[in-house]
# Entry
Amino acid sequence: MVDIFLEKEKLIDEKSHDYGLLDEVSVKLIKKEEKEAHTTVFQRLAKQEPQCGFGELGVCCRMCYMGPCRIDVFNTGGPQTGVCGATADTIVARNLLRETVGGASSHVEHAQEIAEILRDVAEGKLDNYKITDKEKLIAIAKNLGIVTENKDVRQIALEVVEVSLNDLYKLDKTPSRWIKGYSPKSSYSKWEKLGIVPTNIWQTITNAMHRTSMGNDADPVNIMLADLRMGLVDGFGLTMATELSDVLFGTPNLVHSYANLATIKEEYVNIAVHGHNPALSEKVLEWADKLNDQAKAVGAKGINIIGVCCTGNEVLMRHGIPLAANEMQAELALITGAVDAMVVDFQCIWPILGQVASCYHTKLITTVPYVKIPGATHIEFSPEKADEVAKKIVEMGIEAYQNRNPTRIFIPDHPEEIYAGFSVEAILNILKKVSPEDPLKPLIDNIINGNIYGIVAIVGCPNPKTRKILFTERMVKELIKHNILVVVTGCIAHITAQAGFMNPKKIKEFEVGEGLKAVLKALGQQIGLESLPLVLHMGSCVDNSRIGVLLKAISEKLNIDVSALPVVGSAPELITEKAVSIGTWVLDLGVPVHVCPPLRVQGGPQVTNILTKDLKNLTGGELYIECNPEKAAKGIVERIKNKRVALGLKA
Ligand code: BF8
Ligand code: SF4
# Structure
């Protein structure tokens, strides 16, 4: 067992002061928050400490009212089972599966909402959205095995939607067509052998809740198989959400923009879009444009939309909207005193925002019937009312602008320049400039010759526990020294953008392996940049599916197993159940996954063994827990080296 208590001490040891290694501007804003809103994330975290060791190890069970039960994993004479007889491994496995359900259902419901918009557009019931990327629609149809010849776009869209919704609810026991169509062949055949390919997606979720309730599945191995199946449900949700969003809102391409809280502009009406669903944020953008003159009429220079968390990634990738704040910085955006409205939809929206917004003139607006926050104004969004709602939200921002308190405004200087928009299509377009017939060839050749030693996908969240030691930045710095191509999504994309890794002009400020530097330079120059950025921004958390699409393409082109590729995933600052479910899907694909803070499995030796050892022989995946950034980078590089050696490549 990795001693998480020791790891925790190490985190504390590395604090240089109260706010750890956080930059001066962040500290200034945090102090302003402390003074004006009487709360900060670090204070709230400190009040929780020491956090419950049973919870951290995953051995607390509250599935029934004979409990809550907890297991003494250190054998100091305490209980070895719960009242019902459940062992540590049973409890750990059940808890993990329920976490994975939490994440997977978030992504699946997100996907379903997008699919329903596409259905209504194709049926002619909705005219305020449209099919923007027809080529993408046809590509999706082909992946799903739908014949597209001699069919018009609406017909194709309807058939794609039918397959999508049928996957969710199908009554026959055939496997999900999305999972089959989008998964690497070698991984898929392993899943078939393990019997974990889902059929009806919603039923798979219901079953997971059922089997983990009291008095059902007590076999840790059987529960872990259900967990791996839930990872595939998550992959399904991610992929469907991304692909259908591209159809409706466009597939991202290279964009130039700026990152950090300095993108808030004092003379403008600032409206922050926060959450995950582009169906809302796209409309807010549209109406901000239409009502710009209205903002000027009240003395502003115009309307400035800024992006928070994954919605920020969505609108950056498709429109170049500035990437202002990650999930943890959402409250700091309000502390600037210059955000006039913050509109949210679902996921990763902290309840504290209601309290903090109430200390300023800011209007916090919730829009989803199942996501309401005390202190917020609720304006219910639905695709039919999208224009009306978006217009009202923008108008509320304009009105609130007039109530600002100028004495409380503090906006940092120096937005960080960034290039983003690296969808798989965008990456292939760049590679096509070098090799029009076979775009993957230059990428694969450079992996083979070692210029690119391996690819690491760094995904997930900004955990205040790891933010203090700048975990992500330190790990990325180590990886790029070793010629690792880093791709990012989610809030990690915000972190790396703010740290300068997406600014080609800053490459010289970092120690970068010569091979990687040369490749990025050569490819960047194909598109008029001095180099590609050190870190490629591939989108929001659902856009992890883009990484899956790329892995499928590479593995099938080379005809080798995904688990053999020199590729590793990492969630170095994990917060949410969604990050857990994404990680499970990546393990399913056969890719090693690094995490910190430790996944809550270490109280169950059998479950820990399955994830860190046995899985290598099942899917090829491997869980790797390490909470020191430099050591984590070393462990990741070692894993890539082993894969290169096994492939007979230069190590
Ligand atoms: O889905 S990275 S904190 S915003 S969970 Fe949330 Fe984590 Fe951010 Fe996007 Ni993803
Ligand atoms: Fe305790 Fe078993 Fe009930 Fe869990 S299900 S709370 S272990 S009695």
